[in-house]
Amino acid sequence: MKALVCILLLLETFVFVVQQQVDGGLNENEISQQISSEDGKQNPPQTDTLRAEASTDRQQYCDLGIPDILAALRELTATVTEQKEKNRELTATVTELKGNIRELTATVTEQKEKNRELTATITEQKENIRALETQLREQQTFILEEINKKNYDREIAFSAGLRPSVGLYVGPFTTDITLTYRNVITNIGNAYNPVTGIFTAPLKGAYMFRFTVHGHGGTPANVSIIKNGEHMVIAFDVQAQDRLNSSNGVVLILEVGDVVYLRLCSGTRIADNQNNYNTFSGFLLFPLR
Ligand SMILES: *[C@@H]1O[C@H](CO)[C@@H](O)[C@H](O)[C@H]1NC(C)=O
Ligand SMILES: *[C@@H]1O[C@H](CO)[C@@H](O)[C@H](O)[C@H]1NC(C)=O
Fold first, then answer.
1. CB contact set of 243 (below 8 Å; sequence gap of 6+)
2. What does the alpha-carbon distance between residue 94 and residue 12 come to, in Å, rounded to a whole number?
3. Does residue 89 fall inside a structural domain?
4. Which ligand is nearest to the CA of 272?
5. CA of 239, closest atom in ligand 1
6. Which atom of ligand 1 is least distant from the CA of 243?
7. Between vectors from CA 121 to CA 115 and to CA 123, what angle results, nearest 5°?
8. Are 259 and 228 in contact (CB under 8 A)?
9. Best probe residue, ligand 2, of 174, 263, 265, 269 (max atoms within 8 Å of C-beta)
10. Domain boundary among 64, 86, 108
11. Is residue 202 part of a domain?
């Protein structure tokens, strides 16, 4: 570095001296005097302040021999080599960083693609959920309809009064007869037939039946519940005079098509009018599998 500054100063001094010669018309002697004064041996009166400064700088830096200059050049070369090495390292670092940026860019692009895929999947899943919800709603509606249908099937209940077709009495007969309760009060599900007096089970289940008997004294009243031709329970009463009353009820397990009705025992009599003293009622408690 020092050598470089020295060379520059020498050049500057030379240019200055040449300029002085051109401007002021110095002869060769004067020039050589000038140059010798540059060596600092004397201070000629013609020198100006600038030249004095340059001279001082040169004295400071340029008391150097050729070996010093060579040493300085070696130093310079070493510095340049060092800088070149550093440049190479920097270039390598920049190249590496560029590579990293490329990788990062690629990763970001990849992630973006994945995000797009995920978004598509989510959209698809949302669509699926919507479709499932619709299906679920449809199923719920179907199930509710089925339950309503089943409940509708289960709506079985009837009540009917005897109301004789002629006069007050039914009986006495010489054989047992099936009683027809003609005055239908309720007949949900139409399982009771008021023409035949027969109830037919529309589905398997537990059924409750109840009946009342009313008659006049002097003749007994004997009425039975019959299931498929078989006596189940009897309501019986007998009074010497005035009125007589009796009742009974039973829960029966019925299969589909089983029949239930009331029979008046031979030799007995019941009495009724529009007041419905004798009634026959039944309903499904619950269905059975
Ligand atoms: C039978 O019922 C009728 C009508 O409710 C009533 O007038 C009569 O006193 C009752 N007879 C007996 C013995 O309870
Ligand atoms: C009532 O009638 C049934 C069936 O006919 C008969 O088995 C039963 O003995 C009768 N009851 C009375 C008390 O007469």
1. 214, 215, 216, 217
2. 41
3. no
4. 1
5. 13
6. 11
7. 105
8. yes
9. 265
10. 64
11. yes
Q: Report residue 193's pLDDT band, with 50, 70 and 90 as the boundaries.
A: very high
Domain assignment present for residue 115? The answer is: no
Of 28, 46, 64, the last residue of a domain is: 64
Instruction: List, for residues 129-157, the tens digit of each pLDDT value.
Output: 999 999 999 999 999 888 877 776 789 99
pTM across the whole model: 0.57
Whether residue 276 sits in one domain with residue 164: yes
Q: Is residue 58 part of a domain?
A: yes
Minimal-distance CA residue to ligand 1 atom 8: 243
Q: Is the CB of 236 under 6 A from ligand 2?
A: yes
Ranking 15-24, 136-145, 270-279 by mean pLDDT, the lowest is 15-24
Give the residue, by CA position, lying nearest to ligand 2 atom 3: 265
- Nearest bound ligand to CA 221? 2
Which residue out of 239, 243, 278 has the highest number of ligand 1 atoms within 8 Å of its CB and is therefore the one to mutate? 243
- Ligand 1 close to Cβ of residue 243 (< 6 A): yes
Q: Identify the CA nearest to 170 among candidates 249, 281, 280, 282.
A: 280
Q: Count other C-beta atoms under 10 Å from residue 2's C-beta.
A: 16
CA–CA separation, 127 and 120 (whole Å): 11
Instruction: Select from 264, 70, 28 the least CA-distant residue to 164.
Output: 264
Domain range for 229: 157-287
Q: Whose CA is nearest to atom 11 of ligand 2?
A: 222
Mean pLDDT of the chain: 85
- Give residue 180 CA to ligand 2 midpoint distance, Å: 19
* Average pLDDT rounded to a whole number, residues 68-95: 94
Centre of ligand 1 to C-alpha 212, Å, is 12
Q: How many structural domains compose the chain?
A: 2
